[in-house]
Structure of GH18 domain-containing protein:
Amino acid sequence: MNNLTIFQDHTRNLQPLPQKNPHVTTLLAVGGWNEGSRKYSDMAATSAGRKRFAQLAAEFVERYGFGGLDLDWEYPTQREGRPQDKDNFVLLLKELRASLSAKGLELSVAVGADPNMLGVAYDAAGIAEHVDLVNLMAFDFYTAATSNITAPNAPLGSSFGAYSVERSVEQWLAAGVPAEKLVVGVPLYARTYTLADPARHGVGAPALGPGAPGAVTQEPGYLTIYELCMIIEDESWDLSEENGIYFAYKGDQWATYEPLTEIRKKAQYVVKKGLAGVMVWPLESDDVSGVCGHGSSPLLRELNKGLGRI
Protein backbone atom coordinates (compact mmCIF):
# COMPACT_ATOMS: atom_id res chain seq x y z
CA MET A 1 0.00 0.00 0.00
CA ASN A 2 1.55 3.31 -1.07
CA ASN A 3 1.38 6.62 0.78
CA LEU A 4 -1.30 8.08 -1.48
CA THR A 5 -3.57 5.08 -0.88
CA ILE A 6 -3.12 5.44 2.88
CA PHE A 7 -3.86 9.16 2.62
CA GLN A 8 -7.01 8.51 0.59
CA ASP A 9 -8.21 5.97 3.17
CA HIS A 10 -7.74 8.47 5.99
CA THR A 11 -9.44 11.17 3.94
CA ARG A 12 -12.52 9.03 3.43
CA ASN A 13 -12.82 8.67 7.22
CA LEU A 14 -12.69 12.46 7.68
CA GLN A 15 -15.01 13.55 4.89
CA PRO A 16 -18.30 12.69 6.70
CA LEU A 17 -17.42 14.81 9.75
CA PRO A 18 -18.59 18.21 8.43
CA GLN A 19 -21.86 16.61 7.33
CA LYS A 20 -22.44 15.17 10.81
CA ASN A 21 -21.45 18.39 12.56
CA PRO A 22 -21.73 21.66 10.61
CA HIS A 23 -19.34 23.35 13.07
CA VAL A 24 -16.47 21.04 12.05
CA THR A 25 -13.94 22.10 9.41
CA THR A 26 -11.22 19.65 8.43
CA LEU A 27 -7.86 21.15 7.46
CA LEU A 28 -5.00 19.40 5.73
CA ALA A 29 -1.75 19.90 7.68
CA VAL A 30 1.49 20.13 5.72
CA GLY A 31 4.94 20.04 7.28
CA GLY A 32 5.97 18.99 10.78
CA TRP A 33 9.22 18.32 12.57
CA ASN A 34 10.24 15.34 10.45
CA GLU A 35 9.80 17.31 7.22
CA GLY A 36 12.59 19.65 8.27
CA SER A 37 13.00 23.24 7.18
CA ARG A 38 15.33 23.24 4.18
CA LYS A 39 12.77 22.25 1.55
CA TYR A 40 10.39 25.00 2.68
CA SER A 41 13.20 27.52 2.74
CA ASP A 42 14.12 26.58 -0.84
CA MET A 43 10.52 26.76 -2.06
CA ALA A 44 9.75 30.08 -0.35
CA ALA A 45 12.96 31.74 -1.57
CA THR A 46 11.49 32.71 -4.95
CA SER A 47 8.25 34.27 -6.09
CA ALA A 48 7.74 31.45 -8.59
CA GLY A 49 8.25 28.81 -5.91
CA ARG A 50 5.78 30.44 -3.53
CA LYS A 51 3.14 30.90 -6.22
CA ARG A 52 3.47 27.33 -7.50
CA PHE A 53 3.23 25.85 -4.00
CA ALA A 54 0.17 27.95 -3.19
CA GLN A 55 -1.62 26.94 -6.39
CA LEU A 56 -0.88 23.22 -5.97
CA ALA A 57 -1.78 23.27 -2.28
CA ALA A 58 -5.15 24.91 -2.92
CA GLU A 59 -5.94 22.46 -5.72
CA PHE A 60 -4.97 19.47 -3.56
CA VAL A 61 -6.99 20.64 -0.56
CA GLU A 62 -10.05 21.22 -2.72
CA ARG A 63 -9.70 17.91 -4.55
CA TYR A 64 -9.80 15.88 -1.37
CA GLY A 65 -12.62 17.78 0.27
CA PHE A 66 -10.80 19.63 3.03
CA GLY A 67 -11.92 23.00 4.31
CA GLY A 68 -8.47 24.54 4.28
CA LEU A 69 -4.74 24.17 4.91
CA ASP A 70 -2.60 24.28 8.04
CA LEU A 71 1.05 25.09 7.29
CA ASP A 72 3.55 23.73 9.83
CA TRP A 73 7.01 24.89 8.72
CA GLU A 74 9.40 23.92 11.52
CA TYR A 75 10.96 26.46 11.45
CA PRO A 76 11.72 29.48 9.27
CA THR A 77 15.41 30.57 9.55
CA GLN A 78 16.14 27.43 11.62
CA ARG A 79 17.40 23.91 10.84
CA GLU A 80 19.27 24.77 7.61
CA GLY A 81 16.95 27.61 6.76
CA ARG A 82 17.88 31.09 5.52
CA PRO A 83 17.82 34.43 7.37
CA GLN A 84 15.43 35.59 4.64
CA ASP A 85 12.90 32.94 5.66
CA LYS A 86 11.27 35.32 8.13
CA ASP A 87 10.14 37.64 5.33
CA ASN A 88 9.63 34.88 2.78
CA PHE A 89 7.30 33.07 5.17
CA VAL A 90 4.94 36.04 5.19
CA LEU A 91 5.12 36.28 1.39
CA LEU A 92 4.30 32.57 1.15
CA LEU A 93 1.29 32.99 3.42
CA LYS A 94 0.11 35.90 1.28
CA GLU A 95 0.19 33.66 -1.80
CA LEU A 96 -1.57 30.85 0.05
CA ARG A 97 -4.23 33.23 1.32
CA ALA A 98 -5.00 34.38 -2.21
CA SER A 99 -5.15 30.85 -3.67
CA LEU A 100 -7.20 29.39 -0.82
CA SER A 101 -9.61 32.31 -0.48
CA ALA A 102 -10.43 32.07 -4.17
CA LYS A 103 -11.81 28.60 -3.43
CA GLY A 104 -13.49 29.55 -0.15
CA LEU A 105 -10.87 27.71 1.91
CA GLU A 106 -9.26 28.57 5.24
CA LEU A 107 -5.60 29.00 6.19
CA SER A 108 -3.95 28.44 9.55
CA VAL A 109 -0.32 28.19 10.58
CA ALA A 110 1.51 26.33 13.35
CA VAL A 111 4.32 28.29 15.03
CA GLY A 112 6.94 27.44 17.62
CA ALA A 113 6.41 28.83 21.12
CA ASP A 114 10.07 29.24 22.10
CA PRO A 115 10.31 32.93 23.12
CA ASN A 116 13.81 33.11 21.66
CA MET A 117 12.46 32.23 18.21
CA LEU A 118 9.88 34.99 17.96
CA GLY A 119 11.37 37.92 16.07
CA VAL A 120 14.10 35.75 14.58
CA ALA A 121 11.96 33.25 12.71
CA TYR A 122 8.61 35.02 12.70
CA ASP A 123 7.08 38.36 11.77
CA ALA A 124 4.05 37.82 14.00
CA ALA A 125 1.99 40.75 12.74
CA GLY A 126 2.75 39.88 9.12
CA ILE A 127 1.71 36.28 9.68
CA ALA A 128 -1.53 37.26 11.41
CA GLU A 129 -2.51 39.50 8.50
CA HIS A 130 -2.84 36.56 6.12
CA VAL A 131 -4.16 33.65 8.23
CA ASP A 132 -7.38 32.74 9.99
CA LEU A 133 -5.63 31.19 12.99
CA VAL A 134 -2.15 31.03 14.52
CA ASN A 135 -1.65 27.71 16.32
CA LEU A 136 0.96 28.23 19.04
CA MET A 137 2.75 24.94 19.71
CA ALA A 138 3.02 25.62 23.42
CA PHE A 139 4.77 22.42 24.44
CA ASP A 140 8.23 20.86 24.52
CA PHE A 141 9.60 23.93 26.28
CA TYR A 142 11.93 21.46 27.97
CA THR A 143 12.81 17.94 26.82
CA ALA A 144 15.64 15.52 27.47
CA ALA A 145 17.09 16.59 24.12
CA THR A 146 17.45 20.19 25.27
CA SER A 147 17.79 19.96 29.05
CA ASN A 148 20.17 17.97 31.27
CA ILE A 149 17.85 18.36 34.24
CA THR A 150 14.28 17.25 34.77
CA ALA A 151 11.85 19.98 33.75
CA PRO A 152 8.18 20.52 32.86
CA ASN A 153 6.96 19.98 29.33
CA ALA A 154 4.46 22.82 29.01
CA PRO A 155 3.98 24.80 32.23
CA LEU A 156 1.14 27.30 32.23
CA GLY A 157 2.93 29.73 34.57
CA SER A 158 6.59 30.46 35.18
CA SER A 159 7.20 28.44 38.34
CA PHE A 160 10.27 26.91 36.67
CA GLY A 161 12.73 28.62 34.38
CA ALA A 162 12.00 31.25 31.77
CA TYR A 163 9.59 29.35 29.54
CA SER A 164 5.84 29.07 30.02
CA VAL A 165 2.59 29.12 28.08
CA GLU A 166 1.64 32.47 29.60
CA ARG A 167 4.91 34.11 28.58
CA SER A 168 4.70 32.85 25.01
CA VAL A 169 1.08 33.94 24.65
CA GLU A 170 1.86 37.42 25.96
CA GLN A 171 4.79 37.76 23.56
CA TRP A 172 2.75 36.76 20.50
CA LEU A 173 -0.06 39.10 21.48
CA ALA A 174 2.40 41.95 22.03
CA ALA A 175 4.02 41.18 18.66
CA GLY A 176 0.79 41.82 16.81
CA VAL A 177 -1.34 38.66 16.73
CA PRO A 178 -4.97 39.48 17.64
CA ALA A 179 -6.26 37.43 20.58
CA GLU A 180 -9.14 36.14 18.46
CA LYS A 181 -6.65 34.51 16.08
CA LEU A 182 -4.31 32.92 18.64
CA VAL A 183 -4.79 29.24 19.50
CA VAL A 184 -2.92 27.61 22.41
CA GLY A 185 -1.49 24.13 21.87
CA VAL A 186 -1.90 21.57 24.67
CA PRO A 187 0.17 18.37 24.78
CA LEU A 188 -1.64 15.08 25.38
CA TYR A 189 1.56 13.27 26.33
CA ALA A 190 4.27 13.09 28.98
CA ARG A 191 7.97 13.88 28.58
CA THR A 192 10.38 11.52 30.29
CA TYR A 193 13.97 11.50 31.54
CA THR A 194 16.50 9.02 32.89
CA LEU A 195 17.78 10.28 36.24
CA ALA A 196 21.49 10.52 36.91
CA ASP A 197 20.81 9.64 40.57
CA PRO A 198 17.54 7.86 41.47
CA ALA A 199 17.77 9.40 44.95
CA ARG A 200 17.43 12.87 43.39
CA HIS A 201 14.03 12.85 41.72
CA GLY A 202 12.58 16.34 42.09
CA VAL A 203 12.13 19.02 39.45
CA GLY A 204 15.57 20.17 38.32
CA ALA A 205 17.30 16.87 39.17
CA PRO A 206 20.30 15.91 36.99
CA ALA A 207 19.34 13.74 34.02
CA LEU A 208 21.34 11.52 31.70
CA GLY A 209 18.95 11.68 28.77
CA PRO A 210 15.47 10.60 27.67
CA GLY A 211 13.42 8.04 29.56
CA ALA A 212 12.76 4.50 28.36
CA PRO A 213 10.36 4.19 25.39
CA GLY A 214 6.77 3.11 25.91
CA ALA A 215 5.45 -0.26 24.79
CA VAL A 216 3.19 1.30 22.14
CA THR A 217 4.95 4.42 20.87
CA GLN A 218 8.51 3.09 21.20
CA GLU A 219 9.96 6.60 21.41
CA PRO A 220 12.56 7.46 24.08
CA GLY A 221 11.60 10.48 26.17
CA TYR A 222 7.92 10.28 25.27
CA LEU A 223 4.87 8.51 26.67
CA THR A 224 1.23 8.83 25.75
CA ILE A 225 -1.05 9.53 28.69
CA TYR A 226 -2.48 6.02 28.58
CA GLU A 227 1.01 4.50 28.50
CA LEU A 228 2.02 6.57 31.52
CA CYS A 229 -1.05 5.72 33.59
CA MET A 230 -0.63 2.01 32.91
CA ILE A 231 3.06 2.17 33.88
CA ILE A 232 2.23 4.08 37.07
CA GLU A 233 -0.35 1.46 38.03
CA ASP A 234 1.51 -1.68 36.92
CA GLU A 235 4.92 -0.66 38.26
CA SER A 236 3.79 1.34 41.31
CA TRP A 237 5.47 4.63 40.42
CA ASP A 238 5.46 7.46 42.95
CA LEU A 239 3.54 10.65 42.18
CA SER A 240 4.61 14.11 43.32
CA GLU A 241 4.14 17.85 42.69
CA GLU A 242 6.39 20.89 43.14
CA ASN A 243 5.10 24.43 42.58
CA GLY A 244 2.40 23.29 40.19
CA ILE A 245 4.66 20.88 38.28
CA TYR A 246 3.42 17.28 38.39
CA PHE A 247 5.69 14.30 37.92
CA ALA A 248 6.00 10.56 38.46
CA TYR A 249 9.13 8.52 39.11
CA LYS A 250 10.50 5.09 39.91
CA GLY A 251 14.15 4.09 40.00
CA ASP A 252 15.97 6.12 37.39
CA GLN A 253 12.83 6.87 35.35
CA TRP A 254 11.06 10.25 35.62
CA ALA A 255 8.04 11.65 33.77
CA THR A 256 6.38 15.07 33.77
CA TYR A 257 2.71 15.32 32.89
CA GLU A 258 -0.38 17.46 33.40
CA PRO A 259 -3.28 16.07 35.44
CA LEU A 260 -6.89 16.76 34.52
CA THR A 261 -7.09 19.77 36.85
CA GLU A 262 -4.18 21.48 35.09
CA ILE A 263 -5.59 20.69 31.67
CA ARG A 264 -8.81 22.46 32.62
CA LYS A 265 -6.84 25.46 33.94
CA LYS A 266 -5.23 25.94 30.55
CA ALA A 267 -8.61 26.05 28.85
CA GLN A 268 -9.87 28.51 31.44
CA TYR A 269 -6.83 30.68 30.80
CA VAL A 270 -7.65 30.72 27.08
CA VAL A 271 -11.19 31.89 27.86
CA LYS A 272 -9.93 34.53 30.30
CA LYS A 273 -7.54 35.97 27.68
CA GLY A 274 -10.17 35.96 24.95
CA LEU A 275 -8.08 33.70 22.72
CA ALA A 276 -9.40 31.74 19.74
CA GLY A 277 -9.26 28.35 21.46
CA VAL A 278 -7.02 25.36 21.96
CA MET A 279 -5.49 22.70 19.78
CA VAL A 280 -4.01 19.40 20.94
CA TRP A 281 -1.09 17.25 19.92
CA PRO A 282 -1.43 14.45 19.19
CA LEU A 283 -5.09 13.49 19.35
CA GLU A 284 -4.44 9.75 19.63
CA SER A 285 -2.35 10.19 22.80
CA ASP A 286 -5.43 10.84 24.91
CA ASP A 287 -6.92 7.86 26.75
CA VAL A 288 -9.45 7.15 24.02
CA SER A 289 -10.39 3.71 25.42
CA GLY A 290 -10.69 4.86 29.02
CA VAL A 291 -8.14 2.40 30.39
CA CYS A 292 -7.02 4.87 33.07
CA GLY A 293 -10.39 4.90 34.80
CA HIS A 294 -11.51 8.43 33.88
CA GLY A 295 -13.73 7.56 30.95
CA SER A 296 -13.01 7.95 27.26
CA SER A 297 -10.78 10.85 26.16
CA PRO A 298 -10.56 12.50 29.61
CA LEU A 299 -8.09 15.20 28.52
CA LEU A 300 -10.30 16.40 25.68
CA ARG A 301 -13.27 16.35 28.01
CA GLU A 302 -11.49 18.54 30.57
CA LEU A 303 -10.49 21.00 27.86
CA ASN A 304 -14.10 21.28 26.77
CA LYS A 305 -15.18 21.81 30.37
CA GLY A 306 -12.63 24.57 30.79
CA LEU A 307 -13.80 26.22 27.58
CA GLY A 308 -17.39 26.09 28.83
CA ARG A 309 -18.49 23.84 26.00
CA ILE A 310 -19.85 21.07 28.28
Residues 286 and 297 are 6 Å apart (CA to CA). The longest helix spans residues 47-63. The first strand starts at residue 27 and ends at 31.
